[in-house]
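Researcher: I'm preparing a figure for a lab meeting and need a structural model of a single chain. I don't have an experimental structure, so a prediction will have to do for now. The sequence is pasted below. Please return the structure as tokens so I can convert it later.
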Amino acid sequence: MNELLAGLNDKQKEAVLHFEGPLLILAGAGSGKTRVLTHRIAYLIEEHQVPPYHILALTFTNKAANEMRERVNNIIEYGAGSIWVSTFHSTCVRILRRFIDHLGYDNAFTIYDSDDQKSLMKDICKQLNIDTKKYKVPSDKTINHLLKNIDASKIEWNNKTNLAALPEGMEIDLGGIAKGYTSNRLTQIFKEYQLTGGVLSLGGNVQTYGTKEDGSKWKIAIENPSNSPLSGDYLGVLKTGNMAVITSGGYERYFEKNGKTYHHILDPATGKPANHGVISATIVSKDGTLADGLSTSLFIMGKEKAVQYWKKHKEQFDFVLLLKGGKIVISEGIEKIFTSDFDYEVVRDE
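Model: Understood. Here is the structure written out token by token.
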């Protein structure tokens, strides 16, 4: 026992000696995480006679897995070879190789990485004579036909089964709120594990939780879009805690044809890329799902309608708008926590 605990600090010893129930350890780089895990494995085997083949140790890289296996082998007399020590990917593949036939698939499957997937899609497009570099702009006739499917009142909801029924030709795309919903769920997990603070970054979606270790709020920078007339990397900085900061704009996914820019955020009234004078819309709200949806909505609305909507729902969110021409507009709810090197207008509900 003394050999297993030698050289460990009090917190590390506490982690090694924990036996019943789950244990969450938060540790930074170079704090001895691998050492704690290997000593804990040795402790379970030698002190509690846990069979080595009942222990699963997961890491992110093959190098770390090999290092952990080697360290365990140096500590215990036998059994290290029976421990499942591998990466998340390798472990999942191992399980699938053994049991995937229960799902009706062949065990001799091949896993494609991102490069393999891209190569496959290129081959498929080539076989189908699809030019991936040639973007097609639908005709007004096609757009007007599809606009008939944009009507939320046509969605039928069954309260007994909690199922939605859609008319033929109508689809619901939840991609516009998926990351916001994900950040909400993750912060709930933070609360369950009694974490004191953290920041989630989900590509344009930032969710702050709690505070920093010193009790101060998090500083979240709002990116200056690539098509902005303003210079610099950021429009401004927000000091927040327990807030989602989510930005939408047409500056990341677009193509140009015949001198006109087509981006991915469509106006449901016209079926064409929204063009109401907003370059980017940032929403600040406690509800990540709401913020994700509203960032797109306010971008489509334009300044005047966005301001009117905020005045009716100002208890739920605040905003930062970058308008064409370089003007920044913010709502009064974040006036005290927003700083910027640029001049900006503060909208008030007066």
